[in-house]
Model the fold of this input.
Amino acid sequence: MREKPLTLCKYFAEAMKHRIIFSVLLFACILSGCRQGKYVTFSGYAQGGTYTVKADLTGVTVPVRTIQQTIDALLDTIDFSLSGYNKNSLLSRYNAGEEIVPNQCFHEVKTLAERYRTETDGAFDAASGPLFDIWGFGFTTDSLPDPERVQAALAACKEEKVLNFNAIAQGYTCDFVAGYLHSIGVHNMLVDIGEIFCEGVNPAGKGWTIGVDNPVDGNNTPGKDLRNIWQSDGRACGIVTSGNYRKFYIKDGKKYAHTIDPRTGYPVTHDLLSATIVAPSATEADALATACMVIGPEQARALIESRPELEGYLITSEGTWMSDGFAAQALWTDIQ
Done:
């Protein structure tokens, strides 16, 4: 019965071995002048891309190198727990029908996913993995399923035997890393792991600024083509944008977007191009941005306005809408 703990230890040892060269190089960079005052930037690779963490280490006694190594270890924990692409992860083993012992991350994300499914009346559903698979946006490469396969996938979703945490895992990861930084005394931070958590001020003493990408097909480089810039007021929050302009395919002249309505089993057809949500946590912002893309612009606006702790910015093919508290500087002429 000791097989699983030993496997986990072996996984972490292997991960840390691959990261040590990067950590040494980063530490040398920091010593040679990468600091700006008390702010230090940590970066590396995670979840199929890169991450950046900027933190004000004023008053923090933990060595910089230890912080880097801990962040990397936390990200490895997430990968081992929630990745659908890591075949040895808890999620992959669960989806393969194996009986697993959930760790803290897996249990928390599964619980949160159920909460957001209830709150959104099923618009957000981590159990809709079979639907993403048959449409070619999950962990398989299928596409254009016939109605019988869609109905079969909907039935499979109700059994919750195949989960997909893609619409919540990155937000949760940001909060996970931010929780560690809080524990060592960091109050001013920006955690960017695909989605974003920020708190306090940047090195210039102002609120963090985040660009909102222009949601047009072909804009595949974050920050290259911006539609708007949001500025925080210092409160701890997550900010996440979900859209249909990067993950899609065209077949027989028709565009199929990666946003699948788990209530119908089909890709959405409304004109909401992207939804940016500001929420108390990056996990919540991640889940609700996805839900907004499912329910469309009118219902998304109603959802945002019904929750005083939320702010939002919606871009449709006809124009834009933002909530009263969404602090942004428009780069385009917006239609309110």
The CA atoms of residues 78 and 173 lie 7 Å apart. The first helix runs from residue 3 to 34.
